[in-house]
Amino acid sequence: MNWCKKLIYLLQTEMYTPKPFGWFHILWIILVIISLVFLYFKRNKYNDKQLKIVLAVYGVIALILELLKQISWAFNYDPVTNNIWWSYEWYAAPFQLCTTPIYVSLICLFLKKGKVRDSLLSYIAYFTILGSIMTIILPDSCFTSDILVNIHTMYLHCGSLVVSIYLLFTKEVLVKYSNVLKGFLVFLIFVFIANVLNVVVYNSGILNGETFNMFYISPYFISHLPIYGTVQESIPYIFYLMFYAISIYLGSDIIFLISYGITNLKKRLKC
Q: What is the mean pLDDT of residues 43-58?
């Protein structure tokens, strides 16, 4: 039991809560820039081995950090009674838009190039990149006094951003609108899975008053995301679901237009 106590203490080590654009935040932005510059100059278009190395590095480390975070939040130690007990934090269940790149990256390690892998990678390139960008720009709601959680949050989002951009500049995901549509189909599948989990877990009776809101689309809990929570409270649930899906889709369109503009600019500069 001593090793359990030491592990819990280690995982729950605290720090001063980082400030937006403080040293901790800027450090991660620098790491993103360094990673992108390194991968850009080391890029090898259509190199399956290089792609899988990038996906494996991101996916495996992100999965380990996610598991450690889940352990840290699920297990508690009381030094007075010397007891260790398990109490799962259902709101932190790892199936959100920002955690799906972990599963997609690991799944793609075992897939050959084809429609399924192309669709999954298009989802990372055009859809999960949205959450990464927003977290990097506005990280204040994600920062806590827990070192592990802060590292997990920044690695999850910064790493996903690097992977998304890598997929585009190596042309593993081509800047074609058909790929946006492929990514949207994957997004809708994840939305369906998330809401099945929302309904099943809520009605299972195991929450004991806790929140379980995967993808923030549960019909039982109001989203805490800016704008989305207000919209959900204001309109019938089915229309909120449509608003949610359409808004994410439009966000992916913006990513596509930016990518398209950069691609055309590069072609003109070469001429």
A: 89
